[in-house]
C-alpha cells in the first residue's frame, strides 16, 4: 500500500541544507568514513544535526546494521517527562532485536521543557520526522516509505502524537507506558504518590531549570529532577511544561492530546504498560485502547501485571513476550504489506 499524503511540517531548516552542506555534515560526523569502512559486522552509530534553532543544534543518532543495504527504519523518541533525557536512551529491549532484524533506528533529541514549551517541542518532533522522511534515504540508506515510531513514557506520548500530527502517517506506533491525555487529573492535580516525598519549594524547583534552551539532561541531574517532583506534587506539570493552564484553557490542549484525536486514519498502534505504574497511570493506555477500538484502528494493549513504570519489575517472561510482540507488530506493518 502506498501513502497518498505528502509530508507536512516546517521546511526552512531543510532548505538550508544544500548538497554541499549535507556533504560537510556527513564528513564532520564521520558517516562518510564509516561508510567506507565495511569490515566490521557490528552495528554502527552516527550523530547528525537535523535542525538548528539559532546557535542550538538539535541532533539525532542513527543506529544501522552493518553493510550498505537499504534498511527499514524506526524513529525512537526518548522519555523523561519532556524535561529530562536524551537521544542515547533507546530501550535496549527493543534496540538489539530491531538491529538484529535489519532495522535502522533514528533516535532524536528535542528541546526540553520548561525552557521550551510543548508547542515548540511538537515542532521539533514534526521537523525530525520530516527530516527523516526526506533526507534519510540520501543520508543513511533507509527506506522511509513506511516509518515505525516508538518511545517510552513521554516518548510514548510523543509517539502517540505522531499518529495525527505528521504526514505521511507512520506505518506503526509502539507506545511504551505512554499517555494520551494531558488534561487528566493524574497530571493536573497533586499526585498522592509524589507528595509522600518531602515537598519541593517553587524557588528550589525553578532554580534548576533556568537558562537557555537545552536538548539533553542527565536523568540523575538533581535540578530538573526536583522541578519534575515539584510539578507532580503541585499538579502543575501541564501548566509549566505545556505552557497551557488546563483549568482555563482546556480547548487549547486538544491539539496536544492524542486521546482526543483518534480517527479511523490513526496508525496501527501497540501499547505496553504496567498495571502498577505510579508515574504514568495504566489507565492512560486503557483510555487510548478504548479510543482506538472505537475508531476501528488495528491495535493491541499488552498489560504487564503488577509492573511499575518501565516494566523492569514485571515477570521476565511476560516482559520478554511483550517486546517480542512489539517487534512482530512493527514487522507486520512495516514489511508485511509491501
Describe this structure in words.
Helices cover 38% and strands 17% of the residues. By secondary structure, the chain is of the alpha/beta class. It has one domain (12-184, 250-334): Alpha/Beta hydrolase fold, catalytic domain (Rossmann fold, 3-Layer(aba) Sandwich). Helix 12 links the parallel strand 7 and strand 8. Helix 4 (92-100) packs across helix 13 (316-334). The protein starts with 11 loop residues before the first helix and ends with a helix. Residues 1-39 have low confidence and may be disordered.
Offer a quick outline of the entry.
By secondary structure, the chain is of the alpha/beta class.
Layout of helices and strands, plus pairs?
Elements: H1 12-15, H2 19-29, H3 31-36, E1 44-53, E2 56-64, E3 71-77, H4 92-100, E4 104-108, H5 118-140, E5 142-152, H6 154-165, E6 172-176, H7 185-188, H8 202-207, H9 222-234, H10 237-242, H11 250-253, E7 269-274, H12 283-294, E8 299-304, H13 316-334
Parallel strand pairs: 3-4, 3-5, 5-6, 6-7, 7-8
Antiparallel strand pairs: 1-2, 2-4
Helix pairs in contact: 4-13
Amino acid at each position: 500500500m502506498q501513502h497518498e499524503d505528502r509530508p507536512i511540517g516546517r521546511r526552512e531548516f531543510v532548505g538550508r541544507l544544500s548538497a554541499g552542506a549535507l556533504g560537510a555534515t556527513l564528513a564532520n560526523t564521520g558517516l562518510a568514513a564509516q561508510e567506507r569502512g565495511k569490515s566490521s559486522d557490528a552495528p554502527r552509530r552516527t550523530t547528525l544535526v537535523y535542525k538548528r534553532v539559532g546557535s542550538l543544534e538539535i541532533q539525532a543518532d542513527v543506529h544501522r546494521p552493518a553493510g550498505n543495504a537499504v534498511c527499514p527504519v524506526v524513529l525512537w523518541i526518548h522519555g523523561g517527562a519532556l524535561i529530562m533525557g536524551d537521544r542515547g536512551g533507546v530501550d535496549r529491549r527493543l534496540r538489539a532485536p530491531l538491529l538484529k532484524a535489519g532495522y535502522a533506528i533514528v533516535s532524536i533529541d528535542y528541546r526540553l521543557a520548561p525552557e521550551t514549551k510543548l508547542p515548540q517541542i511538537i515542532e521539533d518532533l514534526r521537523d525530525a520526522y520530516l527530516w527523516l522522511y526526506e533526507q534519510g534515504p540520501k543520508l543513511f540508506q533507509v527506506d522511509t516509505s513506511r516509518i515505525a515510531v516508538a518511545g517510552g513514557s513521554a516518548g510514548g506520548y510523543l509517539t502517540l502524537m505522531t499518529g495525527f500530527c505528521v504526514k505521511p502517517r507512520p506505518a506503526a506506533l509502539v507506545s511504551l507506558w505512554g499517555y494520551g491525555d494531558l488534561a487528566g487529573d493524574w497530571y493536573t492535580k497533586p499526585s498522592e504518590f509524589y507528595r509522600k516525598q518531602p515537598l519541593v519549594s517553587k524557588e528550589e524547583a525553578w532554580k534548576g531549570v533556568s537558562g537557555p534552551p537545552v536538548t539533553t539532561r542527565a536523568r540523575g541531574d538533581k535540578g530538573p529532577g526536583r522541578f519534575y517532583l515539584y510539578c507532580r506534587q503541585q499538579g502543575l506539570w501541564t501548566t509549566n511544561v505545556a505552557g497551557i493552564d488546563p483549568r482555563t484553557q482546556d480547548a487549547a490542549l486538544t491539539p496536544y492530546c492524542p486521546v482526543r484525536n483518534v480517527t479511523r486514519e490513526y496508525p496501527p498502534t501497540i501499547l505496553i504498560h504496567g498495571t502498577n505504574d505510579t508515574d504514568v497511570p495504566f489507565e492512560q493506555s486503557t483510555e487510548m485502547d478504548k479510543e482506538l477500538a472505537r475508531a476501528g484502528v488495528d491495535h493491541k494493549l499488552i498489560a504487564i501485571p503488577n509492573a511499575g513504570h518501565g516494566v523492569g519489575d514485571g515477570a521476565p517472561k511476560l516482559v520478554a513476550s511483550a517486546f517480542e510482540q512489539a517487534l512482530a507488530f512493527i514487522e507486520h506493518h512495516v514489511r508485511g504489506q509491501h
